[in-house]
Amino acid sequence: MASNRSQGGIQQLLAAEQEAQRIVNAAKNEKLARLKQAKEEADKEVAEYRAQLEYEFQKKVSDSTGDSGANVKRLEQETEAKIHHLKTEAARISDDVVAMLLKYVTSVKN
């Protein structure tokens, strides 16, 4: 009978060990599932945040490009005004410059 009791006890221990192993495996699987779900949620949040930052960046770029276009137009106008001023001044003093050059070219010094 002691042998039967030992056998029964051993069987109970093996069954308990198998049950414990099943519980541990189930817990590991649940933990892995939760980790996978958390990773997917984190990836989704990162993607949303990245999209938001990209949108804000593109908006700033487009806003600054618009300003850049205005700056280019303003610079072109300023350049045209300066060119016009230089041409006007050149036309105004060109007769004096020509007279001065002729005076120095035609005068002979000993």
From TrEMBL:
It comes from the Eukaryota. Keywords: Coiled coil, Hydrogen ion transport, Ion transport, Transport. GO terms for biological process: proton transmembrane transport. InterPro entries: V-ATPase_G (IPR005124). Pfam families: V-ATPase_G. Belongs to the V-ATPase G subunit family. This is V-type proton ATPase subunit G. It comes from Flemingia macrophylla.
